# Entry
Amino acid sequence: MEMTVVEKQKTIQVLNPISQKGLDYLGEDYQVSEDAQGAEGILVRSYNMHQFPLPENLKAIARAGAGVNNIPIEECTSKGIPVFNTPGANANAVKELVLTTLIASSRQLFDGIEWAKTLSPNNGPIPKQVESGKKQFVGKEIRGKTLGVIGLGAIGAKVANDALELGMNVVGFDPFVSVDMAWELSRSVRRVYDIETLYQDADYITLHVPLNDKTRTMLNKDAFQFMKSDVHILNFSRGELVHNSDLKEALEMENIGKYITDFPNEDVLTMKNAIPIPHLGASSQESEENCAIMATQQLKDYIETGSVKNS
Ligand code: MLT
# Structure
């Protein structure tokens, strides 16, 4: 009589909802669970894992996203657990939202919409009231203006290239010199090697660097003092890159123009001229699928073959 050996399914713990297209990639040999019991891999998006007890049999963690600051990297390194991320998989989604909000902010769209919602039929015909908004919300076109891009990785390079297409001048700063090749940055981006030049020249500044000990609170009062007083700053990277109380003061004193952030906290919500966005940079269907597929591929490859393509 022939014996069939039924292999036990491997368990992947899923800490955030992850696109089904990614989970499907795991196939029948795997079961996904919210539970840590027996988990060999973890799939995570934004869940903060710093106080999280790592499962005993854990072999690897994959983050469906670029930043890994929600993962205890040092603990993982000391336990020999690789951490994978998905650089580039959500770059188009983030780039589109950066450029959308850049134009929207420059054209005073956010303020205009807020104001339009306050119109009331009791104050006369709405169409007449709407027309008075034209005087209040005169914006600026971005064509011919200068965009400073800090960090020229997967997202920053895409933002820089498309901003050039929109007729902007682009100044780029990145401490790593090889990025032109890595991310096919346009030669028309003016690279500067001291960040103060970027601060001085830019009408708009967008942040695309990871959060680490060198970049934490890099935008602080020392940085703000170099900037134009009507500069719009866009932060689709991490909230902690900006020093909160210095930012509050700079906005209140009108030393800077606007702060558009994908990472609003209690302070930002009360700040004058801050535009809070609820962490939507990577939230497109396409990006969620791309990230989930890339993350599960890396996790599965590592568990099955020990191959490390990115960690
Ligand atoms: C990222 O680091 O790529 C984003 O934070 C991803 C996300 O929105 O989860």
In short: The radius of gyration is 23 Å. Residues 285-305 form the longest helix (21 residues).
